[in-house]
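Input/output pair, single chain:
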Amino acid sequence: MRRVLVLFSVLWIGKVFAQSTFSAGLLPKVVTSFKVTPNIKWANGIESRTFIYDEEFKFSHSLVDVSSIFSLKTRMNNKLNFGFIFRFKEGKVEYRSLQHYNIIQRLEHLQLGHRFAFEQFYDDIINLRGRYRVTLQKALNGDKIDVYEWYMKFSNEYLWQFNDETLEIRLSPNLGYRLSKKNKIEIGVEYRASDFTRTIDKNQLWTRCTMYISL
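Output:
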């Protein structure tokens, strides 16, 4: 059975890259947040996207996303998020609204997170997208993440486009470091496979670096 699974995986990977394009790039991001009330947090982020490989090796700046999100704590480990994302691309501005519901489960040695999301893209028509992300986070030293300590974070996300009925899958392992009680940094990679329900025609590999600053 193990050999069958290995063979299937090799054949599947070969099929993916034989029938699709591949690109890679950088996704640096900074997120700042502060508490408006004990149960409401306001977070603002900016993320840049730059290709370093797209059919050939070259640097090509793609876009900038600016986000503004309000987070409302509904229970001890549950939150509702509402906000907007403004995408600056090729001299144009695209708008997106979003609603998230987050659930955090604190297990014995790790933290398990679920995010259910619904997004609206405003163009000539309104494009709708649903998202689900599961995240595992674990301290590398002890049972909890203390200041000046490293941690691992792994996420798996599924994005469904309602208008064209396509699925995108994302996998992202990250290494994080807590700089202080309020600030942390995470570095990792993110693999994206698009149009998963038909033929995987687009593969992307991004190097991520995200700085979280709490004011």
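The chain has one domain: 22-214. The longest strand covers residues 57-75.
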